[in-house]
Amino acid sequence: MFRSRSKDEQAATAKVTADQPQQPRDPQAPKGRPTPKRSDAQSQRRSRAHTPANRKDAAKAQREARRADMARQREAMASGDERYLPVRDKGPVRRFARDYVDSRWAVAEFFLPMAVLILVLTMIRVPSIQSIALLLWLVIIVLIVLDSVLIWFRLGKLLQERFPNENLKGVKAYAVMRTLQMRRLRLPKPQVKRGEKP
Q1: How many CA atoms lie within 13 Å of 117's alpha carbon, on the beta-carbon side?
Q2: What are phi and psi of 103, to 5 degrees?
Q3: Cβ-based neighbours of 146, under 8 Å, separated by 6 or more
Q4: Does 193 score more than 60 pLDDT?
Q5: Measured between alpha carbons, how far is 8 from 12 in angstroms, rounded to an integer?
Q6: I need a labelling partner for 51 at 20 to 30 A (CA). Which of 29, 119, 122, 152 fits?
Q7: pLDDT of amino acid 16
Q8: CA–CA dist 176, 190 (Å, integer)
Q9: Is the pLDDT of residue 12 over 60?
């Protein structure tokens, strides 16, 4: 049981291992390359970004990086720089939709000032003025719905003509939502004047 193997058994195992094909070494294996010199390894470590030693430093670095990203995005929103815009505003299709909305007058952009006016009118305790205010509410809402439907279909047609092979999902809703904002408050800032073709 504990005696050494005979020469015949050793020869048989050597023959079996010789018959098996040699598997090539994986090029990604860690020892498939020479060990780097200490000076090279240290210079590589120094050149890599240092990870913070504790959670507090890591959180601080993450906050600073997020702040820098947000500052870049704010600048891009003002200038229209495509590189730093948020994902929802990127791309030529979204830019065309923004330009289309910004180049025309929309009823919905006057909703906020009209709402304030109607609110003031409803506070006046004269029944005829209050009924006029309610009628104005109805007229404004109907006009906004009609204008939004018009934008939806016209923009859809233009998008199909200009960008037949692009993904147009959500672009019309994006444009209609943009009409609800007053022109000077829109982000990204309008890049075209009213009446100018997008």
Answers
A1: 11
A2: -85, -5
A3: 107
A4: yes
A5: 6
A6: 29
A7: 47
A8: 15
A9: no
